[in-house]
Amino acid sequence: MALELWWGSGSPYSWRALLALEYKQLPYVSHLVQFAKQEHKSPQMLKMNPRGRVPVLRDGDYVCFESMAILYYLERKYPEVPLLGRTPEEAGTIVRVISEYQAYVEEHIKKVMYSILFQAADGNHSDDVTRAMHLLAAEARTINTRLSTSSWLVGEHFSAADVVIFPGIQMLLRALERREASELRGRLLPLDGNYPAIAAWIQRVEALPGYERTYPPHWREPRES
């Protein structure tokens, strides 16, 4: 039986699962869940994931949810195109880089994005959000330095570190393009000038086979002015 993935457009966690499946060249049946229709809370979804969240992966009788769990499952079940390293040392570094992102970056991205999308209609942001943006700029310098000496976040191969971090950065960059982010965007944008190694890395990810199938469909739609 083919793998099946339930995912949502604009969910960075869904994007991780899609990137992993495409990079590993695994055939799968794609089920795009419509958040606006509350499809993630449907009886079918709640039966597979009582939390009513995506992504959800089904492989035969086995159901797996939470993006990191999906990455680990795919790596163990389908190891032919590795995402968690080719040596123990590489695996340790990949997990460390992911852990650093989750500990020191992810919550700041969420805070900034929430302010841009839901709080700062007038473009004014709290001191807490401004501080989060300052911390993100510092972490971006760290990532940029790492990518200045390597094609990917760990070594010379695309890995789970890239899978985990890429969607979050892309979501943040898209949010910073909004009018409400005018006071914040200068700390990161223009990316080519401020963090050229990150900009080049994004282009490398976008050039991977199958990337277009992972791109959030609603991002292709014209934005309202």
How would you describe this protein?
The protein contains ten helices and four strands, in the order βαβαββαααααααα. It is of the alpha+beta class and 225 residues long. The protein has a four-stranded mixed beta sheet with strand order 2-1-3-4, with helices on one face. The longest helix is centred in the middle third of the chain and has 22 residues. The radius of gyration is 18 Å and the shape is globular. The mean pLDDT is 94.
The assigned structural class equals alpha+beta
How many DSSP helices? 10
Q: What's the overall average pLDDT, rounded?
A: 94
Largest sheet: 4 strands, mixed
Strand content: 5-15%
Strand order of the largest sheet: 2-1-3-4
Alpha carbon gap, first and last residue: 45 Å
Q: Which word captures the global form?
A: globular
Helix content: 40-55%
Reading the helices and strands in chain order gives EHEHEEHHHHHHHH
The radius of gyration over CA amounts to: 18 Å
User: How many strands?
Assistant: 4
